[in-house]
Amino acid sequence: MLRQYARRTGWLLCGLLVSAVGIVMMLQANVGLEPWSVLQQGIAQTCGITYGVSSILVGAAVILIAIACGERVGVGTVANILLCGIFIDLLLALGWIPRMGNLPSGVLMLLAGLELLALGTWMYMRSALGSGPRDALMVVLARKAGRSVGLCRAAVELVIIFVGWRLGGGKWAWAP
Predict the structure, then answer these.
(1) In degrees to the nearest 10, what's the CA dihedral of 122, 123, 126, 130?
(2) d(C-alpha 37, C-alpha 33), whole Å
(3) Cα–Cα distance between 37 and 113 in angstroms, integer?
(4) How far is the C-alpha of 82 from the C-alpha of 115, rounded, in Å?
(5) What confidence tens digit (pLDDT) does each residue in 126-163 have?
C-alpha cells in the first residue's frame, strides 16, 4: 500500500515537473499563449508578480470556485496548484530554456512544449491523486449547467482570454 502510494506520488511529481517544462517552453516560444496563460501573464504583469505566483493564485481561485460548487479535490490537485507554479518560476529563473526571437524557432519551441505538457499531463493523471484545478472547474460547471464540458470550457476560456488580454497578457516581444 505504501509502496503503491509512493509510486503514484512519483508519477505526480514527475508529471508536474514535465508539465512545468512544457509550459515554460510555450512561454519562451514567444508566439502566443493558451487562454489560462494569457490570464496568468496579464495578472503577473499587472500585479508585479511572477508568472508562477500568478499561476498559483489563479489555480487557488479556480479550485475554490469548484469546491464551492461541490467538486471534490485530492492531494494531487493541491500539489498541482502549488508545485507547478514553483517549478515554472524556478525554470524561468534558471534561464535554461531560451526565449525565441523569430517565428520558425518559436513554432518549434511551442510544439515541443505542447508535447511535453501532454506527456506531463498524462503522468500526472496516471497518479490518480486528484484532477487539475481548471479541469475540476470545467467538470463541475458542465454538471451544474447541464451542458457539455467542451461548451463550458469554450465559454470560460473566451472570458479568460478577454480578461487576460485586457490585463496585458498574450503579447509577444517580436513582430513578424
Answers:
(1) -90
(2) 6
(3) 13
(4) 22
(5) 999 988 898 888 888 999 999 998 999 999 999 999 99
